[in-house]
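Entry 14. Structure prediction run on the chain below.
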Amino acid sequence: MASSHGTAHTPANSGHAEGGGHAHPTERDYIKIAIILSIVTAAEVVIYYIEALEMILVPALLIMSGFKFVVVVGYFMHLKFDDRRLMWIFVSGLALALSVFLVVFAAMHWHKVTEYSIFQPVMNLLS
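Output returned:
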């Protein structure tokens, strides 16, 4: 079938995969992504040992880990190239999990829970 530009519309020459999606990354792209992830991981290890960065250590590690998470999910799990509805299902589940974590963290902070001995009765029931 010819397109409006007079050329055949095939996945090879359109830059799109079967089904109208975008083409997946090439081997070269995966190698670049792996190098970027390695550099970020090395930076995480390095900043852990720099005492002057102790005050920003946790936020910096969280930001870098979040970046790596997005890259791995987007490229290696092909989420970036799948149907947007699948991405929203994944993101909404992640947002729900993060919300639960933040609510529990806020509740523990509000009630000044510094020791986990309040969970001992539950642990006794489970064992």
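Residues 1-19 have pLDDT under 50 and may be disordered.
Filed with the rest of this week's runs.
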